[in-house]
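Duplicate of #3305? Posting structure anyway:
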């Protein structure tokens, strides 16, 4: 009898240990699964998902952000102001926006931080037909000039260009032409039009002919777009933001090194990406605007406080904002990969 009891006890103890072991394995498996679950990062853009942002749109194919444990949610907008409104309201973590929209928000007292320089090069320009003989900003005096809208970056950068030669908005006639702003130029309704490098590319495809181009970057080379977050997000989500910057920088390097692959992937991922040949030209332009002397020395995304300060001061001089902004309080390099 004692032998049977001892045998039964041994079997029972073994069974209990087996159950405990299985339970521990299940628990560890659940913990591993939880650890692998990607963290949602909401990126509010100034636009719909377009070709120039292909590197941000292809994580299903390329895993730039998945490798950082992140799942990107792209939130479209209609201008940089939309992107900033989305982070202020808590609808997004990061805003893909322009310096002008940032300056406007800071001027109203919003507490924001710039964490990454997406496009260090100013991509805005003023285009005119050769026959109009506009070769210098001073030649714009007294002319009719088209802009996308009165709240767009085209108007803001036109004012910057005029300011560089002592002209003001009152010295020209600004005409709202909408996104198809090259048609009025070709039809002679305006003498010049404020646009972007990609806008000019499409206009050339449509047969605009020979043109003169005044590049705003030759007069004030503020970045075209930056990543911005609220101070609250910055203080509370630094690991998330640092991982995002790592993923974005890797994706930007990929698009610079593999523009043809990016152009092919844009066909399915960008709303304007059906023409692969055009995609490639747009991507090449954006790659160029992603690089500056500073990024060559310190890496993609490098922020230059003095350049941003010059931009903010110019906006103040133009009357676009009312307050002096101290950009050294807004710019942070703490999340840069070099640190």
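Output from current build:
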């Amino acid at each position: 009898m004692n032998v049977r009891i001892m045998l039964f006890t041994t079997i029972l103890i073994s069974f209990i240990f087996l159950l405990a072991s299985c339970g521990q394995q299940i628990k560890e498996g659940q913990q591993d699964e939880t650890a692998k679950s990607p963290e949602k990062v909401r990126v509010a853009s100034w636009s719909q998902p377009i070709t120039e942002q292909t590197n941000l749109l292809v994580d299903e194919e390329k895993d730039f952000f998945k490798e950082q444990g992140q799942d990107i949610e792209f939130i479209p907008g209609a201008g940089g102001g939309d992107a900033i409104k989305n982070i202020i309201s808590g609808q997004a973590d990061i805003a893909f926006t322009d310096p002008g929209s940032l300056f406007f928000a800071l001027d109203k007292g919003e507490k924001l931080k710039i964490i990454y320089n997406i496009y260090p090069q100013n991509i805005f320009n003023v285009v005119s037909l050769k026959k109009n003989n506009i070769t210098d900003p001073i030649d714009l005096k007294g002319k009719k000039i088209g802009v996308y809208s009165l709240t767009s970056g085209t108007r803001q950068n036109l004012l910057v260009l005029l300011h560089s030669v002592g002209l003001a908005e009152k010295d020209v006639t600004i005409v709202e032409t909408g996104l198809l702003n090259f048609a009025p130029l070709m039809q002679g309704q305006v003498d010049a039009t404020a646009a972007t490098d990609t806008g000019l590319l499409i206009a050339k495809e449509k047969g605009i002919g020979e043109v003169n181009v005044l590049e705003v970057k030759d007069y004030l080379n503020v970045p075209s777009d930056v990543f911005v977050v609220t101070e609250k997000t910055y203080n509370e989500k630094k690991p998330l933001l640092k991982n995002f910057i790592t993923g974005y920088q890797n994706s930007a390097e990929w698009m610079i090194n593999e523009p043809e692959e990016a152009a092919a992937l844009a066909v399915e991922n960008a709303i304007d990406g059906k023409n692969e040949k055009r995609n490639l030209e747009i991507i090449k332009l954006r790659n160029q605007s992603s690089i500056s002397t500073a990024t060559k020395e310190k890496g993609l995304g490098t922020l230059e406080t003095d350049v941003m300060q010059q931009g903010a001061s110019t906006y103040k001089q133009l009357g676009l904002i009312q307050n002096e902004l101290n950009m050294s309080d807004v710019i942070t390099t703490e999340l840069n990969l070099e640190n």
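Confirmed duplicate; merging threads. Residues 85 and 91 are 8 Å apart (CA to CA). The two ends are 73 Å apart (CA to CA).
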